[in-house]
Amino acid sequence: MKNEKLFIYGEKRVLKGRHLLGLPVVAISEGRRLGMVGDLLLDLQRRRLSALLLEKGGGWRGPALVLFQEVHSVGRDAVTVSQPGMVRELKKEAWLESLPSSSLRCLIGRRIINVQGDEVGTLEDLFFHMPQGKFAGLEVSAGLIADFLWGRDFLEENLVQVFGNEVVVVKKKGRVGKP
């Protein structure tokens, strides 16, 4: 079956980050549901998806995650991992403290400005190359009316200068087209 959540951009398949939110994570070795994707942990310096943060209620004592490199596949209806041991409790992951990261939910709604100081819009989502998890670009909203009339815009990842704590700074003066 075709995955309606995947887009073709150039020669590559890309997936919107929000489409991962709420998907069940399933261990294919046991056919067991391990939890639901609650957020995405991003490595903003390397511009890639680092891990899937699982929502509470998956049978873990605290927050848990699956490293993206250990994901077997991302499908239309679920994310699969080879075995339950791929899920790790968050408190045991010491490397998280040194990783310059953020989550998708923290980035959504962040203002985007260009290097000339003009507001480009608001970050609504991130696109990822699949299956690698590398950033492909940003989905940008110019506001409710503009989104309704013309749709949202797509900024390629190479136009992003920095993901700041308060704003995202992009190199291009204008706005660019659709994915």
From TrEMBL:
What does the record list as coiled-coil region(s)? none
Q: Pfam families this protein is in? A: PRC (PF05239)
Mind telling me which InterPro entries this protein's record contains?
A: PRC-brl_dom, PRC_barrel-like_sf
Domain (PRC-barrel): residue spans on this chain: 17-82, 106-151
Origin: domain of life: Bacteria
Name the record gives this protein = PRC-barrel domain-containing protein
Q: According to the entry, what is the taxonomic lineage of the organism?
A: Bacteria, Bacillati, Bacillota, Clostridia, Neomoorellales
